[in-house]
Amino acid sequence: MRHTLLALLLLSGPALAAEPITGRASVTDGDTVVIHGTRIRLFGIDAPESAQLCQDAAGKDYRCGQRAALALADRIGEGPISCEPRDTDRYGRTVAVCRKGTEDLNAWMVQQGLATAYQRYSRDYVPAEATARAGKRGLWAGTFDPPSDWRRAKRASGIETRPEMERPPAVASVPVQSACAIKGNISRKGDKIYHLPGTRDYDHTVIDTRSGERMFCSEDEAKAAGWRAARG
To answer: What pLDDT sits at residue 93?
Structure first.
């Protein structure tokens, strides 16, 4: 009897470890989400880093990493998603295929040209990448450095790029004090919006001081400088 119970426990262990992680997700960057405190890396895809710049069809720089994160957040919305664990990476993150309903979110990111197929680890999303490339969607409409190459170049310069960079190098060397943690972001439309710690978009908002964005110590300071509070 004891041997039977032991065998059942051994058999059930991996199955339990591979149970889907389900719940409302917050987006850290274009290939990473957090559900109930568990950081999850999307399997088989690689999105631009938060501080990464790409070039559009006209050769103009844009923040492709931020665009990928915002697109993923919009696609997920407020509802729950389910992530099926495949592995654990060297940063301790769960690597998983995440779905909203029946839609494979990993595949959607690649199909839209917001991320590339991470062929170093899987070829599952190579067809999706071919579709995006043929349609010149997202990244493929212009030019960009593959995210892995971009990270490698930053590491060569002594800048760590994983886990996800929450701030570009220009401000990474300046510790953000808890009293000055309000993020003053400028949207693609030029709207000046500030984000308070703990709000929906705070974690994946990246501040680029070169474009006029900044940190604030209080809401009054942000409002006086012409920023408005984020909605939602």
So the answer is: 93
